[in-house]
Specification:
With about 450 residues, this protein is an alpha+beta fold. The chain has two domains: about 250 residues, no CATH class; about 140 residues, Sandwich (Immunoglobulin-like), CATH 2.60.40. The chain contains 13 helices and nine strands. The chain has a five-stranded mixed β-sheet. The chain has a four-stranded antiparallel β-sheet with strand order 1-3-7-6, with no helix packed on it. The longest helix is centred in the N-terminal third of the chain and has 45 residues.
Length: about 450
């Protein structure tokens, strides 16, 4: 079976499949575009949520999935449009045949120019066919390129986090091995990128190729290029494929640049300004967060207008809060940090041991309460936060403030956080939210 690809029967089968592949291309493109448009919005929301939660692992996965989805949507729509143009050209050729420049009765200058630049209608159809086939193939190849970039960056992060910055490893491993390894990966990434954008220039010269070969082998594994290498070299050994590859790289860069442009309507105001005594951002008011694309701010209250005699204040939890708690109470810092990726079975056993340590959790919440304070206008209010979840099931800390002595009208809620900067302890404004108090 391994030698079947050399048989004439198999070659005839491939030839027949090549001639009929446009039907499969259109079918796959149609279903893929529909599915990609369906999942693009949930992926975008997942990416925004991961950034809101400061979850680096989920952010990487969501970002790769969103970028891959966007690339496929653009390429496949372009493929369908060109394939539709190709089918239209075929139908027109059936009706009118090739272009008859003599019947157009143009002047000799224009006739000569059009024959040279436009040429045969069959050549136009063949060119469209080449574009369609290559764009369809390269659409999925680009996903592997995105994965290659992602895995290279993750390799650098892995070396920096788990080798160089690992306090558990001896110095000769963390620094003696980690630093040279980091240098090799960074230089190798740069060299591999140069070889990629020059379409294999480093492989063409004997002495350079010998130096580059070990780097090529290592990055072949890191970037998973062994999975798609035959397609890449099939592009590069074809003149048309090389030209298209050279055109597509700057074309995608141009798309990224154009997509980054936004229109600004004011010199001073926009809809993403943080709340203050003169700004009320909807991310800080729970009754305004009806859209899944809108996320809770660091601090939130039920509404801009408070009619009850109390005010609920919710502080969203994120990972750096725990770092601040450890700074103020080092005794809470565990010997083994459980944050980050985990195995479900291992995590369950560890949490079951921690369930008996309720006193540590009490110290954790007490430390949080000593760090965070609440002011309404210039008056500091007694607050006792408890751990809970908000209406969106987001983890955080919640407290209630008595408003009986508050006058009607506009007020400013100020949530402050104490932090250690070097040898000094300072208070910073975490959030300042305006609200209006009109009791029933």
């Amino acid at each position: 079976m391994s030698q079947d690809y050399n048989s004439q029967t198999f070659k005839n089968l491939l030839q027949r499949l090549q001639e009929e592949s446009w039907q499969l291309e259109l079918l796959i493109s149609g279903f893929a575009i529909f599915g990609l448009f369906t999942v693009y919005e949930p992926l975008s929301i997942a990416l925004a949520e991961s950034k809101q939660d400061h979850n680096s692992y989920k952010t990487v996965i969501s970002l790769v999935a969103t970028v891959s989805c966007a690339i496929l949507i653009f390429n496949l729509i372009l493929h369908v449009l060109l394939r539709g143009l190709w089918i239209g050209a075929l139908g027109l050729r059936y009706v009118s045949g090739d272009i008859d420049y003599e019947k157009l009765n143009y002047s000799q200058k224009f006739t000569s120019y059009l024959k040279k630049k436009v040429g045969s209608f069959d050549k136009y159809i063949a060119t469209l066919e080449n574009y369609c086939s290559i764009i369809f193939a390269i659409s999925f190849l680009l996903i592997f390129y995105v994965l290659a970039i992602t895995f290279t960056i993750l390799t650098i992060i892995f070396i920096a986090t788990f080798i160089i910055s690992n306090d558990w490893l001896p110095w000769w491993i963390s620094k003696g091995i980690g630093l040279p390894l980091m240098l090799f990966v960074c230089l190798g990434m740069l060299i591999t990128f140069i070889d990629f954008v020059t379409l294999g220039w480093l492989k063409k010269y004997k002495w350079i190729s010998r130096i580059y070969f070990p780097v090529y082998k290592v990055f072949s594994f890191i970037t998973l290029s062994f999975l798609y290498r035959p397609i890449v070299y099939n592009f590069l050994d074809h003149k048309f494929g090389r030209r298209l590859s050279l055109v597509l790289v700057p074309f995608y860069i141009l798309i990224l640049v154009l997509a980054s442009f936004e229109y600004q309507t004011s010199n001073y105001i926009s809809n993403d300004l943080d709340s203050s005594d003169i700004i009320a951002n909807i991310e800080n008011y729970e009754d305004q967060l009806n859209d899944k694309k809108q996320f809770t701010g660091n601090v939130s209250i039920p509404s801009k207008v408070i009619t009850n005699s109390y005010l609920k204040v919710f502080v969203l939890y994120y990972e750096t809060i725990e770092n601040s708690i450890f700074d103020f109470n080092p005794s809470l810092k565990p010997k083994e940090d459980l944050r980050g990726l985990y195995n479900e079975a291992t995590r369950t056993s560890k949490l079951s041991r921690d369930n008996s340590q309720d006193s540590i959790r009490r110290k954790y919440i007490q430390t949080f309460n000593s760090i965070y304070s609440i002011q309404i206008d210039s008056m500091t209010n007694d607050s006792e936060f408890v751990l809970t979840q908000n209406f969106r099931n987001e983890l955080g800390f919640e407290t209630y403030i008595n408003l009986d002595s508050l006058s009607e009208g506009k007020h400013l809620l100020n949530v402050k956080r104490t932090q250690i900067t070097g040898t000094d302890t300072t208070q910073i404004h975490l959030s300042r939210l305006p609200f209006w108090y009109f009791p029933n």
